[in-house]
Amino acid sequence: MPVSGTARTHRRHPRRSELATPASSERMCAKAPASGADLVFLDLEDACAPSAKESARSTAVAALTEQNWGGTLRAVRVNGLDTPWCHDDLIEVVTGAREALDVVIIPKVRTAWDVWWVDVLLTQLERKLGLGKRIALEVLIEEAEGLANALPIARASTRLEALIFGAGDLSVSLRARVDGNFDPLSPYPGDFWHYARAQVLTAARAAGIDAIDAPFPAYGEPEAYRESARQAALLGFDGKWAIHPSQVPLAHAEFTPSKEEITSAEDVIARYRAAEAEGTGAIGHDGRLIDAAHVLLATNVLDRASQQPTEF
Questions:
Q1: Which residues are CB-contacts of 291 (< 8 A; sequence separation ≥ 6)?
Q2: pLDDT over 90 percentage in the chain
Q3: Which of 151, 133, 294 is CA-nearest to residue 211?
């Protein structure tokens, strides 16, 4: 499977929170820029009834072009490739929004060819319209086939900036027995979604792109959302979907390195470099070994901190 384009265009932009907003709702689209989310996507798929999908395109274009989004990434989730709406979603939104659209999110991706098809159409549109920038892609891994093909999907296009773990539709595809929050109906040993999360995260890291965790439908349970975000952050995810603006600051708190983490990382690197200058490859500090692997872990922390605004 050839990779489209010549060089990966991954922009180092924070994706701690990705806020879903129904593209059919002018009221909610008007409120979205003030949410403080790192990325807002106007949803033409699940958030729009079939009767509203076509009219929602113009609502999305108006929101993208007429509002001040500041530093927020502006995205649209189109309908699936197997629907009668996807083709026109791409053409109408890209033609209308032009440079005001940063990212297209593709749902229910099953194979690398799905990504390739969207990439080719975007390339044609960009050339036809004379756009001054490339539109990036994010894709949802939310089908059994997509999960099995996560790595080739992650490497399918140089436009691709993130893989998103979609627990809802994956529950359907796997025939999992879960509740409305995608949690198992009965006690389950360990993290019910660990394998799927690890697959998505591993594929994203192998491709050099971001990994975004699944939405948390129970927006009235902030502490449960926080815990879900914390678990994803510990595993290595870069951010999490939010289905309500109240979830945005919770995601930021979990995916932003704390002052203590930053101070500890700086201390590890400083101690190791000082020892290295004296010809020592590993040192002990507070009863623990510090070697090259610990320096790389500390570098990861500082790298994350440098990519995003600090919020303490």
A1: 272, 281, 282
A2: 77
A3: 151
| Burial class for 177, CB neighbours closer than 10 Å (0-12, 13-18, 19+) | exposed
DSSP 86-152: HHHHHHHHHHHHGGG--EEEEPS--SHHHHHHHHHHHHHHHHHHT-SSPPEEEEEE-SHHHHHTHHH
CA distance 67 to 141: 30
Give the 3-state secondary structure percentages of the chain, helix then strand then coil, rounded to 5.
50, 15, 35
Rg (Cα) of the chain, in Å, rounded? Answer: 20
Helix (H) or strand (E) holding 39: strand 39-43
Give one DSSP letter per residue of 180-246, joined into a string: TTS-BSS--SS-TTHHHHHHHHHHHHHHT-EEEEPP-S-TT-HHHHHHHHHHHHHHT--EEEESSGG
pLDDT at 292 over 70: yes
Taking phi over 0 as left and psi of -120 to 50 as alpha, with beta for the rest, 216 belongs to beta
How open is the CA angle 138-143-149, to the nearest 5 degrees?
70
Cα 151 from Cα 201, distance rounded (Å)? 10
Note the pTM of the prediction, 2 decimals. 0.89
CA 178/CA 307 separation, integer angstroms? 36
Say how far apart CA 156 and CA 166 lie, in whole Å.
Answer: 19
pLDDT in tens, 198-252: 999 999 999 999 999 999 999 999 999 999 999 999 999 999 999 999 999 999 9
